Amino acid sequence: MAKTEIRIGGLGGQGVILSGIIIGKAAAIYDGKHSTLIQAFGPEARGSACSAQVTVSDAPIGYPYVKNPDILVVMSRDAFVQFAPTLKDNGLLLYEEELVEPSGLPAGVRAYGVPATRFAEELGRRLVLNIVMVGFFAGVTGLLSYSAMEKAVLASVPRGTEDLNLRAFKRGYEHGQALVARA
Amino acid sequence: MKADPRGVLTGIHFMDGDHAACEGALAAGCRFAAGYPITPSTEVVERFAARIPTVGGVFIQMEDELASSIAIQGGAWAGHKVMTVTSGPGLSLMMEHVGLAAITETPCVIVDVQRGGPSTGLPTLPAQADMMQVRWGSHGDYSIIALSPNSPQECFDLLIKAFNLAEEYRVPVFFMMDEVVGHMTERVVIPEASEIEVVERKWTRKKPGEYRPFECEDGSLVPSMVKAGDGYRIHITGLTHDERGYPAMNVAAQDKLVRRLKDKVDLLRDRIVDVREDGVDGADVVVVSYGITSRIAGAAVEAARARGVRVGHMRLVITWPFPSGRIAEVAKTARAFVVPELNMGQMVIEVERAVCGRASVRCVPHAGGTVHDPDVILDAIMEAAR
After folding, report:
1. Nearest in space to B372 (alpha carbons), one of B289, B310, B252
2. What is the pLDDT of residues B190-245, one digit of tens each?
3. Which residue ranges form the domains of chain A, and what is each CATH number?
4. Distance from CA of A51 to the nearest CA of B (A)
5. What CATH architecture applies to the domain B5-195?
6. Which chain A residues are Cβ-neighbours of B371 within 8 angstroms?
7. Is A104 left (phi over 0), alpha (psi -120 to 50) or beta?
């Protein structure tokens, strides 16, 4: 009855919700688990605080919200400030290291950073920073299988951008794997 | 009969409740929808507008909810399965036409993705505060049917059932979603069209001239229909009418019509109700819940059992008609009922009526904006068990 609660936070336009959809889809469709995604966003289309709550479980999910995540993924300083205190003790923090400087974390939290925006720019489009982040999530957590995550990326991005997004996913994944191997 | 494959998006999807409801409507054979955008329901018709040209049908964004709720009734009499989609403030505006659909026995589905009220209230946040409005909101006596899904999968499955019930009973059927169910994304499995059962409209076999639009035959309480363009000259009115459909404003006609409008649902209540029970027989405390709250209550029930309380859970999948008979039966053995809902106490009134003093009834109200904390429901169960 393993249950993992994830919160992803950032700014509107960073692809926060799509990140949640990809993780949820990988779990619910390609890895045979249960998954519930809840999204919250402001009235503005760009720039407002935006977050996704994803629960992944072997058993059906009742209560759908994530109050205290096991894993927190943040792509903005505001999201870090708002959600870091909610992270469980011994939880996992994944952050955009050029936008967030973690401090004052709950006890035992492990934190891993990735320059997702810079990686995305190096790949040619800043827009894919969320896919770098999703790859990083896959590489660090190992929560869902590589193939499920890859399929979920392919099934969620616009046609014609699959190659770029796969490269972004791999870039984040490899960075995550390397950090975990070093830790 | 089986669903028209053109409307069925067979496959395994990761989809939110609003989109799943749209797919449920298309699978059920809905080919005309009219609506006016309102959070948190807009995604249902947004998707419908995008999908319907490829399926074959029409969506019209009307000037407001009054127009939407009457346009669908025109669509129904033109022979189509129809729906409109809204949330609290829009639902209030539709109430006049709900009465018209009730008295003209026009099959239609009204999807209400509930948000906090009254008035504009909480546009982007959940509530279950329209439960009594859909039962009693329009003036006069009539019956309706309401369903309460608790997941995107049920938004698909139960909306098909809602359309089927609308055809079978010729009543407005309300689909009582809420913001959480509407915006929550989960796995949704859509089967092959050949596995989806849909109810065809009860068309008359009589010829023009012989057909009487409100005449019931073979002991049924539901008359058969015709559609515009088939050559029948009929009169449909919001006035009290006789079997021919002509105004008959007298005591006898009123008694006959209104009695049937209620009886066609109320007398068949036991056939319509759908209560999912978990550990109810022999339970000391029974939780009665519906919609999104049933999922939160489920977590509280598990926690109470872990503390040794004999607690059962009755989840109302169909909220109207209310399963009074079953509640009354359970009240013979249960000591207490706990009723959590995202309003200040609506369906609990029905529970109290059915229990009729044989057990204690404890409401766990919540004004809306989020769901209950499971611990609050757990506390109510523990107190009730004392």
Report:
1. B289
2. 999 999 999 999 999 999 999 999 999 989 999 999 999 999 999 999 999 999 99
3. 3-182 (3.40.920.10)
4. 13
5. 3-Layer(aba) Sandwich (3.40)
6. 63-65
7. left
